[in-house]
Every structure is written in C-alpha cells, then in structure tokens.
Design goal:
heterodimer; A: mainly alpha; 62% helix; B: mainly alpha; 3 helices; 82% helix
Chain lengths: 157, 84
C-alpha cells in the first residue's frame, strides 16, 4: 500500500515542527506541564509519522534500529548515572547535586511569582532529557520492529 | 455556560466516535475514528485541568496507537470479515 503524495509531503513538512515541539516539552519539563515522557512520546510520534508515510527501507538513512537501541540504552544510563553521581559528590542516591551551585542548571530560583527561568532546578532537567531520549528510542523501536516484519512478510491490499 | 456547552459537545463526540468505531466495517476508517476518540479524550483531560495527562494521551493515544493500527491494517487487509 503506497500512501499518497499529499501524506508524504505533509509528513516531510510536519516532521521538524513536531521534533521542535517535543524538545520544547522535554526541556521545559520543570516549568510547564509535560516532561520527559510526554516530550519523548511527541518526538516518537514524529518519527512514527515518517515511518507510516514512507516505507521502512526508504528511511534507513535517517532512522535505524541500531541508533534507536543506542538512544534507549544511553538515556537509561544517563538517568541512572546522574542519580549515582550524587553518591560521588557526597549526597544520597538521587540527591539534587546541581541545584543552586551556579553551574549547569544551577541558578537559584527567584522568590515569589516569576515567569520561570530555564537554568534552574539542578538535576531535574538533565533527568527529563534522559527520559525523553529513552522514551523516543523505545517507542520508535516498537513501531520499527512491526514495520520490519511487514517488509519481510509482504503486504495485502 | 459556554464551558458547559463545550464540555457536553466533547462528551457527545466521544460517544459518537465510540459508536462509529463499533459499527464501521472499513478498518482504516475505524482506526482513524479511534484516533479521533483519543483526541477527544485528551481534550476532556484538558478541560478537567490535567494538561500533563492530556499531552500523554494526545501523543500516545492519538499518535502512536493509530500508527500501530494502520501498520497492522497494512498487514491484515482493509475490510473486516473478508477472508483471503
């Protein structure tokens, strides 16, 4: 089943916008609704849109199973590594060792109502990013394995 | 008042989408109607002030699940009940 030219062109045009929106949800996870899982799911929806509009064999330059496996494992390793690094610094497991230090995401939070500063909250944006990468890889892999089976077994209609 | 009307409209849309999914014999239309159902559910979550859940539902329910259904329909054929 070959999808129409309208679907393919719309998927091509929409893909970067979906990607940017998902990254916005991930990186603003500590300020606005949403977070790692939601943003990762939105990014995975963009990848899946391309997978549904095109054939899997046409996309092997952009999206590959191997890369998605690396993203999934790498996101999990970044998450647990950030949590374990607190032990090296001297806190307990999952201690927020980056907050209020002035380094990465370390600006102290202003008191009272404020529009929200993105470089705050310490370790939480890093973990949101890790979860976002992991969910993107995992949800894309699920669909990719279904597509791979489809390409081997032939299609109906 | 306008909020109540909008809320009732969304709820009625959910019911009609669900009935359409049950009645329809074209599986591709049914899959798209499932996506519409999920989208209305996410709108309902937003009305009930759970924007976090609404984003998850819109991404997973309306996006990924519909895509997985469409891929499965490519495999099994478009019409319900036709045996090869």
């Amino acid at each position: 089943m070959q999808l129409s030219r309208i679907v393919r062109t719309a998927a091509d045009i929409l893909y970067p916008f979906i990607l940017i929106f998902g990254l916005y949800i991930v990186i603003h996870g500590h300020l606005t609704p949403g977070g790692g899982f939601q943003g990762g799911a939105v990014i995975a929806t963009g990848s899946v849109l391309l997978l549904v509009a095109f054939r899997y064999s046409e996309l092997t330059g952009d999206l590959r199973k191997g890369w998605m496996k690396i993203f999934e494992s790498g996101g999990l390793l970044l998450f647990i590594g950030t949590a374990l690094a607190a032990l090296l610094v001297g806190g307990v497991f999952f201690f927020n060792w980056l907050a209020n230090t002035g380094s990465l995401f370390g600006i102290p939070v202003a008191f009272g109502p404020n529009p929200g500063e993105i470089y705050t909250a310490g370790v939480i944006p890093v973990m949101n990013l890790a979860v976002g990468i992991e969910v993107w890889g995992g949800l894309s892999l699920i669909v990719m394995y279904m597509m791979g089976d489809l390409e081997e077994g032939g299609e109906r209609s | 008042m306008i909020e109540l009307f909008f809320h009732l409209l969304v709820l009625a849309g959910i019911v009609f989408a669900a009935i359409f999914v049950y009645m329809e014999r074209d599986l591709l239309s049914a899959a798209i109607a499932t996506g519409l159902f999920s989208f209305l559910i996410s709108l309902e979550f937003y009305i009930l002030q759970a924007p976090d859940v609404a984003i998850s539902q819109a991404a997973i329910g309306a996006g990924l699940t519909t895509a997985i259904f469409i891929i499965a329909i490519r495999k099994v054929g478009r019409w319900e009940g036709d045996e090869r």
